[in-house]
Design goal:
It holds the Pfam family adh_short_C2. InterPro entries: NAD(P)-bd_dom_sf, SDR_fam. This is SDR family oxidoreductase. The protein is an alpha/beta fold. About 40% of the residues lie in helices and about 15% in strands. The protein contains 11 helices and 7 strands. The chain has helices at about 30-45, 50-60, 70-75, 105-115, 130-140, 155-170, 190-215, 240-255, 275-280, 285-290, 300-315; strands at about 90-95, 120-125, 145-150, 170-175, 215-230, 265-270, 325. It has a 7-stranded parallel sheet with strand order 3-2-1-4-5-6-7, sandwiched between helices. It is globular and about 50 Å long.
Length: about 350
């Protein structure tokens, strides 16, 4: 009896490879080829004695050849450091960190969040009462805090306050400057004195503070400035708009200057939030109009801004510098864009 053997059919192509399914070309993808080469090299020992091949094989396995031990756990588990104190052993100097009313402000919010995360806090503020209120609440979190007088408009005061903070705490690691404000006068009617004061309060003051605090800071620290959505303004209050534009450029420039010391400098651009500053003399109708002008139709508050500023001060933002972050609920709504008044805020005299 004659037997005949049936030729074995060719092995089917791997259907699991993305490049061989769903009508894609049958040529193996570069990714698959590279992985295959790396796998063969590892199995055959070809990577031994070849650092480049070893590094390539390790990279394809999804690991890193050289990495700081400090970040190894964070890379293997991105949420490993999401909880717990981020600033333990650090010292935060917060300009405008006083508690100036029941609503509080951005400065106090940043100071409190830093303290909750383990930092000792120098509360730099002109108002002694507000500063001491903030210190009392911060100390309840189990950290050290001290009010230090600061007149942000005066260069000598900035220098003295920085020196006092360094002497009191022994170091300065992170800094935030939330002080600002200004006129809503037209560019044609604002006085020279008021124009200069607005520029000093919102721009020059930050330059003076950074100039004095940067040399006193530890390497690897962080600085946060606070700008405003008024930079998009086209109506009255242009002196304030100019000043905040300058502040943002100062932030970007300082980030380059201090990069060699790994001191990060970023800016938070504030939308139309409800806080101590906005609450002064604002009617409920005006407040509701502001809320409706926000794209998300949600009213923000100082804690929304403080949370962003706090994040930028921590090591979680270790590779972020020279950036301006808008925290504004998505900006102005489409309905409000044609109804812009003072410094980017909806005109209270017009409907939505």
């Amino acid at each position: 009896m004659t037997t005949t053997s049936t030729p074995s059919s060719p092995s089917p192509r791997r259907s699991t490879c993305p490049s061989w399914s769903e009508g894609r070309p049958t040529r193996p993808s570069r990714w698959w080829c590279a992985c295959s080469r790396a796998g063969r090299a590892r199995r055959s020992g070809f990577t031994d004695g070849d650092p480049l091949a070893t590094a390539r094989a390790a990279q394809l396995r999804g690991t890193f050849v050289t990495i700081d031990e400090k970040w190894r756990q964070a890379i293997s588990d991105p949420l490993a450091t999401a909880e717990g104190p981020w600033l333990t052993g650090k010292v935060a100097a917060i300009a405008g960190g006083g508690l100036s009313g029941p609503e509080g402000g951005v400065g106090f919010g940043i100071a409190w969040l830093c303290a909750r995360s383990g930092a000792n806090v120098a509360v730099l503020d002109r108002d002694r009462e507000a500063g001491e209120r903030a210190v009392e609440l911060i100390r309840e979190l189990g950290v050290d805090a001290e009010w230090i007088e600061l007149d942000i408009m005066d260069d000598a005061s900035c220098q003295t306050a920085v020196a006092a903070a360094k002497e009191r705490f022994g170091r300065i690691d992170v800094v935030a400057d939330s002080i600002g404000g200004g006129s809503v006068e037209s560019i044609l009617t604002v006085s020279e004195e008021e124009f200069d004061a607005t520029m000093t309060l919102n721009f020059k003051s930050a330059w003076m503070l950074i100039k004095h605090v940067a040399p006193a800071m530890e390497d690897g620290g962080a600085i946060v400035t606070v700008s405003s959505g008024a930079t998009e303004g086209r109506g009255p209050g242009m002196a304030y708009t100019f000043a905040k534009h300058a502040l943002e450029k100062l932030t970007i420039g300082a980030s380059q200057t201090l990069a060699s010391r790994r001191i990060r400098v970023n800016c938070v651009r504030v939308g139309m939030i409800w806080g101590a500053f906005a609450a002064k003399g604002m009617t409920e109708d005006r407040r509701e109009l502001r809320r409706k002008s926000v794209a998300m139709q949600i009213e923000g508050n100082s804690w929304d801004i403080a949370s962003a500023g706090f994040f930028l001060l921590t090591e979680q933002a270790r590779w972020v510098s020279g950036q301006v972050f808008s925290v504004d609920g998505g900006g102005m709504s489409a309905a409000a864009r044609g109804n812009v008044g003072s410094a980017g805020s909806p005109d209270p005299g017009k409907g939505e």
